[in-house]
Specification:
6-stranded parallel beta sheet; 16 strands; 8-stranded mixed beta sheet; Rossmann fold; about 400 residues; 2 domains
């Protein structure tokens, strides 16, 4: 099959959607398919240093970057639109990543014009909690193009049963498919020394580290995590909170909360960690937590589990059922007291934390290896491609 992924940006700072798109494409390319990604050179505050005049091949996937232009919040690219008009008919299926953006408008338009089936991955944007944010602006885009894109989609790709359950009422009747994301386990079997992390952030050496690794964003539950940590830190001077991730509008507020709760000197903001630095942070931590108010999948908690860490997550992380079932995750409501109660025993009992971490890694091995997920994606694409003369696909793939 010839498979096209459309996404607004592959900038690492944009977080999970970019990483998932690249790894998804590579997993299916390894199964012998011709896979391409069309995207723009957008990144926060500028453009990426990537070629926009010729394709590049990475991990068996052809990448085409197109120049972005104003208005940048919408990430438009007329060059991308022209390429889609020229190339679309040659693809068997298209996978649209995220919604409300320029590539959804032009991708859906040209796919329908050429009779190419397309699948939409909303990346949690149909969750009622996120859908309500900036509702007026989203309503305008829904009216202008997004409802039409969803209505004519061959399928909506959800990454968990919970995401499907909460999003289906807003999917304009398009059939659901559930296929989880995978995790690249390269480097997780033998983590680097925690000393690499301690050398970069010496204030963490000798501390019992609570690790948060995600964007600093309003939905991530940082308003719960910082006061919960402060309550625990008042009783245990060894505790240290590491907030690892790019600022997405909440850095100043987090610093304000830390000062209010007198834990500014017990916290480290690392910015985004990659590669060996990220793996070393996992090696240095006692536990991972993500008390998010909305999380359609959650690559970071799965990575933490792959590193053998116990995790504490909210019941708004949409894969909480699967993660808790394996015994490597404690699941709580979005509540500060519940977060304190969940973290306290794992921080106090190293052996209990280690045993929970072993169960966490076993869960990842069973559910989230890319070779297994790649096979499920391949099946979804084959089903979609078979409907080239029909705009609908039925059924749910577990």
């Amino acid at each position: 099959m010839r498979i096209l992924h459309l996404i607004a940006t592959l900038s690492r700072e944009s977080g999970g959607p970019a990483q998932a798109c690249v790894e998804m494409a590579a997993a299916v390319a390894r199964r012998g398919h011709d896979v391409s990604i069309y995207t723009t050179n957008w990144k926060e505050g500028g453009v990426e240093d990537v070629p926009t005049d010729h394709p590049v091949v990475r991990d068996g996937v052809m990448l085409r970057y197109f120049p972005v232009h104003a208005p940048r919040f919408w990430k438009p690219s007329l060059a991308m639109a022209r390429a889609l008009g020229r190339d679309m008919a040659g693809f068997d299926v298209v996978h649209l990543h995220s919604i409300y953006l320029f590539h959804d408008l032009v991708g859906g338009h040209y796919a329908r014009r050429h009779g190419v089936p397309y699948i939409v991955r909303p990346h949690g944007m149909l969750d009622p909690y996120i859908r309500a944010h900036h509702r007026a602006r989203k309503w305008l885009m829904e009216t202008a193009f997004q409802n039409r894109v969803l209505r004519h989609a061959t399928a909506i790709h959800y990454t968990s049963d919970i995401e499907r359950e909460v999003s289906t009422p807003f999917a304009m009747g398009a059939p659901p498919k559930v296929v989880p994301l995978g995790v690249d386990l390269t480097g997780f079997d033998a983590l680097p020394s925690p000393e690499i992390f301690h050398q970069r952030f010496p204030e963490t050496r000798g501390k019992t580290i609570v690790l948060y690794l995600s964007r600093l964003h309003f939905k991530k539950g940082l308003d719960l995590l910082i006061p919960a940590f402060a309550e625990l830190a008042a009783k245990d001077t060894s505790l240290h909170l590491v907030l690892a991730g790019p600022d997405d509008g909440m850095m100043a507020k987090c610093q304000e909360w830390a000062a209010r709760d007198s834990v500014s000197d017990r916290m480290t903001f690392t910015g985004m960690l990659r590669g060996e630095d990220k793996l070393s942070a996992f090696a240095a931590a006692r536990l991972f937590t993500l008390p998010s108010y909305s999380e359609n999948f959650g690559i970071a908690p799965v990575e933490a589990m792959a590193a053998g860490l116990p995790i504490v997550i909210s019941d708004q992380v949409n894969i909480w059922r699967e993660l808790r079932r394996g015994g490597g995750a404690t699941v709580i409501p979005c509540d500060r007291a519940a977060l304190v109660a969940a973290m306290a025993p794992l921080l106090a009992d190293r052996q209990a934390a280690a045993e929970m971490g072993r169960r966490a890694r076993a869960t990842v091995d069973q559910l989230y290896r890319w070779e297994n997920v790649g096979a499920a994606l391949e099946e979804m694409y084959r089903d979609a491609a078979a409907t080239r003369t029909s705009p609908r696909l039925s059924g749910v793939a577990a």
